[in-house]
Amino acid sequence: MVELTQLMDNEVFMAFASYTTIVLSKMMFMSTATAFYRLTRKVFANPEDCAGFGKGENAKKYLRTDDRVERVRRAHLNDLENIVPFLGIGLLYSLSGPDLSTAILHFRLFVGARIYHTIAYLIPLPQPNRALAFFLGYGVTLSMAYRLLRSRLYL
Amino acid sequence: MVELTQLMDNEVFMAFASYTTIVLSKMMFMSTATAFYRLTRKVFANPEDCAGFGKGENAKKYLRTDDRVERVRRAHLNDLENIVPFLGIGLLYSLSGPDLSTAILHFRLFVGARIYHTIAYLIPLPQPNRALAFFLGYGVTLSMAYRLLRSRLYL
Amino acid sequence: MVELTQLMDNEVFMAFASYTTIVLSKMMFMSTATAFYRLTRKVFANPEDCAGFGKGENAKKYLRTDDRVERVRRAHLNDLENIVPFLGIGLLYSLSGPDLSTAILHFRLFVGARIYHTIAYLIPLPQPNRALAFFLGYGVTLSMAYRLLRSRLYL
């Protein structure tokens, strides 16, 4: 069995692993938030989910949409749309031998921006709080993509 | 050209590669299921998709939603929301040098939970079948995240 | 600090990194397209987003859906559903030591298919343009999954 610990001895890669795990755990929290609002507000998408709240037509009244649930779901989808590119581009960027402090700055800004984006979406804070958080995370990912393609383009 | 086969000689990494490929292929099957129900039930989201079923106003009647199609799409989105964290956290966990049998247990439980989740969603089975499958997969990913951060935190 | 540049000296891996960065950047462009149509058409999902266009009930009229915005969002979600499997399976396939020209053919076809899919979705082109682009990308990912499992299955 080959020792892979050398990959994890690389400081940029360890930092990427830590920040990625944090931002993905944050994204997973959105599932819990959706479940929490669905249960406390009795708002469901599937007939089998509200079978415990009544029989037949009585249960069907819980098959509805709710502003708060939809808001959490939009925040969750926005996370997916932005964290997937960070995951792919960030991994490849980490392996391309970037400067440690530059790489950590990228990771910190991205994770901070996504956490602030969630707060701004769920409270909600007035615009442009959420828009700025979105564009900061977006810009960080594009900056990593640019550095990666500039140094390692191979088509 | 550098030999990368050493990475694939690592048993944890090969197991991760196998289980990930299976669960991602399962997720891709959801696209086929959506296409199948859209075509057999004539339920479309885009005007150009139903142009073959009639002209003008006659075709527009197929621009509608359908319970079964929406159910498959919710199952697909739930897959995305859960498999993306598994992909990122699982990859980094696999590279952090975990015990082989512990790692394989994590991968098997996750893939089994997601396959059971899809079955419970599409049939559908009564709750809490789907909820338990969801929380099992969720717990496995969180367990990998915890082990990763405990051993390799670098902020 | 361990040198990781050996991973990036591998030509298949460098090609994967380049094509992945391009297709993820293309996916990120969909966010910008959504924002563009939301702002120019004044179509918003959140009350705080349209607060700048008027007070109270006057602003609420912009909380609506729009065919063009929904079309971009469907194209974006389809990207997510297809690029996530490519990201996971393609990474593991790249590390499994495939033939360079075969690997590059896979990457080129996938990236070309996804770019054509977006063009066919947004213009829109008549079917089966979009369907063929979808199935080409889908088939490329399945082909990589098959080659990976055939050579490296470990359950």
Automatic annotation (TrEMBL), chains A, B, C:
Recorded catalytic activity of this chain's protein: RX + glutathione = an S-substituted glutathione + a halide anion + H(+)
Listed GO CC annotations: endoplasmic reticulum membrane; mitochondrial outer membrane
Keyword Iron-sulfur set for record: no
Transcription recorded as keyword: no
Enzyme class: transferase
Subcellular location, record wording: Endoplasmic reticulum membrane; Mitochondrion outer membrane
Main location: endoplasmic reticulum
GO BP annotations listed: cellular response to lipid hydroperoxide; glutathione transport
Keywords annotated in UniProt: Acetylation, Endoplasmic reticulum, Membrane, Mitochondrion, Mitochondrion outer membrane, Transferase, Transmembrane, Transmembrane helix
Transmembrane portions of the chain: 12-37, 83-111, 131-149
Pfam families xref list: MAPEG
Subunit structure: Homotrimer; The trimer binds only one molecule of glutathione.
Function: Conjugation of reduced glutathione to a wide number of exogenous and endogenous hydrophobic electrophiles.
Name of the protein described by the UniProt record: Microsomal glutathione S-transferase 1
